[in-house]
Amino acid sequence: MEMSFYARTADKRKSFEMDDELYDDDDCSFKVEVVDNRERERKLRREIANSNERRRMQSINSGFQALRLLIPHSEGEKLSKAAILQQTAEYIFALEQDKTRLLQQKHHFKANPEPVRSRRSEQHRFKAIPAEKAKTEQEPRAQENIKDDENNNVLHSDDYVEEIQKELIELRCQLERERRLRISVEEKKRLLELDVADAKSKSNDKPQKALATSRQNLDTIVQAIKHLEGEKPELIETPTKCKAEASTNGPSCSENTSRRLIV
Asked: Does this entry carry the keyword Transmembrane (predicted)?
């Protein structure tokens, strides 16, 4: 019985130890998850803070840019933020001074309206000049203006005529150049045509001269044969005669002449 009791207690201890280990593992995993969640929250907060800071700086820069456009400054001048703030404060102070000065003038005019009335009466008096006097003063001016306009028109017309004459002279010179070029081109063309015609005539005359010389040589050979053999001139005929008879009598005459020459 005692042995069985001890065995049961040992088993229970082992089971309790295993349960403790499992609980410890669960606690560790839970702690790791908690740490990860905290890190994520920190990252998110940091990103949110960075984005807010970025937006704030962008709004500040845009505000300084607007102030720089409002204040009077020279183009291309580089101003720091402190300089922009200082010049803006000075500009606002100057505007306030102008405002107070204008308000003081307004109150002064309201309190003392007589100088304004006197100025208006003087203006009315100056406007009430007689019309005839104004016309007499304006007539010579109008005549002078008319003369000036006429002189200007004459000058403009003279300039226009001179420009037209220059253009006509240039056109004439250009036409003369073109005419000379055309004449030179036509002369070159005519010379080339003459050269081509001479070359053709020379090429046609060469074979005719060669034929005439060959015929003369044949005639001299035939006459020499006649003189050596002492035959009658009727028996031996020149090739020119044979050619003429061949053209008139046909192939029979050509055969006879060939036979005679062979004999």
From this structure: no
